[in-house]
Specification:
By secondary structure, the chain is mostly helical. The protein has one domain. It contains six helices and no strands. The radius of gyration is 18 Å and the shape is extended. The mean pLDDT is 87.
Length: 69
């Protein structure tokens, strides 16, 4: 479980990250870069098949009546 300090550092890095480089990459280039990164571990197809889809409770809530009209 990440610490509060680690989460704050991750949030800071995300705010300052230059996403234009990622936006300029194709999906194939992004996958190749992830596979080349020694710190990443991409799940196998078998591992992905074992995952359960979890939808956060907040997303499952019904919209307020005024929004539904």
């Amino acid at each position: 479980m990440p610490t509060k300090k680690q989460l704050e550092e991750a949030e800071r890095l995300l705010r300052t990250f230059d996403w234009s480089k990622v936006d300029a990459m194709t999906d194939a280039e992004i996958i190749a870069a992830a596979k080349a990164d020694p710190d990443t571990s991409l799940p196998t197809d078998e591992e992905l098949a074992e995952f359960d889809l979890v939808i956060p409770a907040k997303s499952r809530r019904k919209p307020p009546k005024e929004a539904a009209e």
